[in-house]
Predict the structure.
Amino acid sequence: MAEPGPAARPPAPSLEGLGLATDRPLVIVDVDEVLGLFMRGFGLFIAERGYELRFERFALFQNIYRPGAADHLDLVEGRKLFDEFFRTSCGEIEPAPGAVEALRRLRPKAEILILSNAPAEAERLRADWLQRHGLPGALILSSGPKGPITASLVAQTSGRTAFVDDLIPNLDSVADHCPATATFQHVADLRLRPLAPRSARHPRIDDWAELGAAIEAAIS
């Protein structure tokens, strides 16, 4: 779960350039709070710097506090912590329970692409994290709504497609730009699940074993 960056980056690269076949199903998956436990890792990171993370709303910066404070941290200061985390520590988060196993089962049946809204400085750490945990290595870092870039990727493949994210705005964006793509919501952190908005447009499946089976059915 990462809040949108300032401006979208250039159009999607080619699937072939990423080492992905264009004649197989394509599954596009987010990282933070989908494949990885971002809030847990970010909470540990800011605690080392004298702050605390409270789970009061489905948000990021508005949940950062100084211990004992009634008001959340200034958004500018929160952004500095966010940027530092992605620059230095985003490779230390834990995989979401069941995610590695679910993607391992999907790989013989589909091409898997990781699409993460994260600062460009995080690319090396994020790629290393995927490799270390045996996750697919095709990675794109983006920013802003994910519909346009997903549509560019989907247009390159002749197979069925699926998209997984925790944020409803990204899911809605994908559904609007490529309505034939199956969309699924997943929220990894148990503390965030009661706070996360839902939408009837996108099945919400928070168990990766069940989610993997649903994705497989959607692309078969």
